[in-house]
Amino acid sequence: MATADRLSLRPVRPADRDRVIEMTRDVWGGHDYVPRVFDDWVADAGAAFQALEVDGIVVGLQRLRPYASGLIWYEGLRVASTHRRQGLARAMLESAIAEAREQSFREMRLATGNLDAAGLFEELGFERIQDDRWWRGGRVEGGESARIPTADEADKLWAAIASSPGIELWGGVTADFNGAQDLASAELSRLAGIGMLRAGPGGRAIAGLREPWGDNLAVAFVAGKGGALRELLMALRFEADADGLDDVVIALPRDHPAGKDMHASGYDFANDDDNMYLYRLNL
Ligand SMILES: CC(C)(COP(=O)(O)OP(=O)(O)OC[C@H]1O[C@@H](n2cnc3c(N)ncnc32)[C@H](O)[C@@H]1OP(=O)(O)O)[C@@H](O)C(=O)NCCC(=O)NCCS
């Protein structure tokens, strides 16, 4: 069995490109995103993109990325199919946790859609904080996009939505699978500052956007209820159309009460079996 202290992890290098493409070819039916982001990840000195070698060949990958004060994001865990179930992923993750502790991070967060990996994360003490379902609303022509609030409005907006139904199901974070931020007024202010916050009528509904993975408007959280929320959900579909995007994609915690407003606004489950989980570990 591999253990963290016997592992030889080293930074991924540009020359590893072909091997990384080869070892991720059978991940997610050939649709792994790691080859697509490889060049950016190798070039990013602000994160630790690590390779595990066995007998001189790369068989494991992982990445640790600081992304907010005290928070480190864990992503890109891969073990070559020839080397699975030998404890390598567990040992790599243990090493990553030790490294994050050494660097005094407060919390490690990650997202996964792989239930096998979820078992590993739970064994190592990660707590599941979100169980999300994908909702999709097609683009609609002709209406007004939602208002983009100013960063100064964030406190007021947060006060208006902080007690909206189902807010606790977010587990205190946004469903941004590139780095879940704390869900609080500072996050509304940050999103507003980069043009990624949307407000419904009277600020009684809010949507925070995230970087999309495809041609869609991607939403990392929604809050509010009833007519205000429905109006905002429609406005997002109008915005997708105005921007030439296919649709709006929203990750919403399972059984969130906004589901009925989603249905009423023309949104559907994209795929009932396609889950995404968010995990956190106090370091
Ligand atoms: C998930 C993955 C990284 C696991 O790598 P691995 O080196 O085989 O994992 P380990 O041998 O360290 O297994 C550790 C634990 O994870 C769980 N696990 C791993 N693979 C599993 C599987 N196929 N089925 C069920 N549980 C599994 C088990 O709890 C296992 O402990 P056990 O062997 O004592 O039962 C690897 O299968 C992989 O690269 N998959 C494709 C990419 C992916 O899904 N990455 C995770 C995205 S966050």
How would you summarize the topology of this molecule?
Blueprint (H helix, E strand, L loop, with lengths): L8 E3 L5 H7 L10 H10 L4 E7 L2 E12 L2 E9 L8 H15 L4 E6 L2 H9 L3 E12 L15 H8 L23 H9 L3 E3 L5 E6 L5 E9 L1 H17 L4 E7 L5 H6 L2 E3 L5 E8 L1
Parallel strand pairs: 4-5, 9-10
Antiparallel strand pairs: 1-2, 2-3, 3-4, 5-12, 6-10, 6-11, 6-12, 7-8, 8-9
This protein binds coenzyme A.
Coenzyme A (COA) binds next to strand 4, helix 3 and helix 4.
Structure description:
By secondary structure, this protein is of the alpha+beta class. The protein has 2 domains: 4-105, Gcn5-related N-acetyltransferase (GNAT) (Aminopeptidase), CATH 3.40.630.30; 132-281, Gcn5-related N-acetyltransferase (GNAT) (Aminopeptidase, 3-Layer(aba) Sandwich), CATH 3.40.630. The protein contains 8 helices and 12 strands. Strands 1, 2, 3, 4, 5, 6, 7, 8, 9, 10, 11 and 12 form a 12-stranded mixed β-sheet that branches. The longest helix has 17 residues, at 226-242. The model has no long low-confidence stretch (mean pLDDT 94). The structure holds coenzyme A.
